[in-house]
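Subject: for your reference before the review

Hello V.,

The reviewers asked for a structural picture of the protein, and I figured it would be easier to keep everything in one thread rather than splitting it across files. Below is the amino acid sequence we used in the manuscript, unchanged from the supplementary table.
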Amino acid sequence: MTPIPDSTQKQATAQGSVIYYRDGKTVLARQGVDRKKVELAQVPGHVRDAVIAAENRSFYEDAGVSVKGTARAVWSTVTGQQLQGGSTITQQLVRNYYSGLSQERSVTRKFKEILIAMKVDQSKPKDWVLEQYLNTIYFGRGANGVQSAARAYFGKDVGELSVAEGAYLASVIQQPSRFAAPTGSDLVAARARWKSVIDAMGQTGALTAQQVAAQRFPDLKEPKKPFELKGQAQYMLEQVTAELNRRGYSDEDINSGGLKIVSTFDKKLMQAARRAVRNALPDATPEKVRTGLAAVDPRTGEVVAFYGGRPSQSAYYDSAFSAKVMAGSTFKPYTLAAALDNGFDLSTRVDGNSPLQVASASKPIPNDSGRSYGQINLIAATQNSVNTAFVDLGQKVGLDKVAEVAEAAGIPASQLDRHKTAASFPLGVASVSAVQNASGFSTFANEGVHMEAHVVRSVTDAEGREEVVKPASTRVVGEQAAADTTYAMQQVVKYGTGAAARLYDRPVAGKTGTTDKSKSVWFNGFTPQLAVAVNMFRDDNATVTIPGYGTQFGGQLPAQIWRAFMTEAMEGKPVEEFPEPSDLGYDYGYSAPTDDGDVPEQEDTPPVSPDDGGTPEPEITAPPLTDDPSATGEPDDDRQESRQDEPSDDPPALLPEQPLGRQDDAPADRGARSDDRGGRSPAG
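And here is what came back from the structure prediction:
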């Protein structure tokens, strides 16, 4: 009349998941229960014999219960005396495997366990019972099941265990906590228990007398410390877990589903990102200054590397995924692409005079230093990052179309909607993360097609079924519009504000970005194979100033970090050329680079927070960042006084280890300084 329970205890079969780097072999993290199920055939016969000798010598002959042992156990329960246990392997399995059987010591529970054990013995093969038992029991050292135990105690798979090692695991079952890492009297007891198992194997015939005499107590591996993740590894785990949740995997699936999760992260590139940032930033960099880096494969959308900041700055809050700061002039290419995809071309003339009054703006919009350019084409506007030219272009093409391109390129609508009616929208008043901006620029590298940014390549469940992530693909702009946008951005690196990011062996397209008072500074750039964004900002939203380097602009440290990372990332990679731009029948030429424009704070633009009003990442909290000057305690009339970088006719001092930016074929009267010249370098 007693039924076998229909369900098993979750913890009895739970297997932790393993997260790998993109090679599918190098372990990044382990999550959940330490258990790896194995078939009985994978467990050597001598290991099975040791467990049977130690726990239940009559296993293959009894009916699932031991009458004498059960009588002892019941008497122990009734009297409270701690007598020798009498549970068979089948009874232990029933107690730990099936739902509905509690662990409390009661006569009722004991009789129920006995009856179910008998039913299991009648309905299940003995080998099935032994296999489930070996995969269920706890061995100490956090190891559940014999495979995890073999790894924990001896650093090898269960199939590689020697007779002595298998006997030790069998001896641990009785007192797993005591024998996990025995010393002193516990070691003496562990040796005695191990010897009794070896002798029992001789008594059951599993070993000959000579084999028994030849066994020696095995060397135990030092216990591993709990699997702890710090710094970038912790950030990686957070992002992988968050994406798995978005894709329908619960935390329970991750912690107990035995998943094999292959991430998109390249271990070598992760290390290169860290080196690029750490080597570029001086030791005196203030603690509040944050640096983020993100690298995206344009053809797949995979985030292959990132740098999320120093762990000491704030736990579970990274500068690549979580922090969202004003994009500045790195947003201008989205405006350019929208125009080129809607009937404009690179020879289109726009108003580069300063200031520019737009009907929807409450005050005129200036260029940096108030410089006017007259009517200029879109290449010169991009190369020199002319604010008024892009405001004019945004008005001509329509801000709704600019927003459509930016959103299709991976920037969430929630971060754009509150700004897209502002005349300054094309200048980057919306906040984005480094990953979002790298992903957006990857659209241009991928000929106008955006591949959804993601951090998980594949998930394989405990039964071996693999789900390969297929990122969403979106045609953002036409191929020619993407090629022309890329061509304009090549001029930024060749002759304009991004000269410090040049790579000696291959073409680069990119864009600098600097917001008002250098509250956030950027360099975004790409080759056909990789799109990378680097940003710098402060926790308190103040000006990014580095001792010895002064107030920062996108073409300074961000561009240097970008170049250092890409030099290493592109090493050994084939040189790929960008597509040809439209042929308009004449040479575009170039114009002199300029100290381009800080994004002005517009009265019609509300303050921007790090998550831009959206929902923060799960389990991540960020210090408040805002573009509202009152948040830093600075009075409005003091804001301009904090500017230490007003234009000067004096020649700039060279920054340490920075090459001169002048090209051999550049005219001598270029006049303006480019970012790789140091001192007051161009913003934008």
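For the response letter, the relevant points are probably these. Residues 482 and 653 are 37 Å apart (CA to CA). Residues 184-204 form the longest helix (21 residues).

Happy to draft the paragraph if you're swamped.

O.
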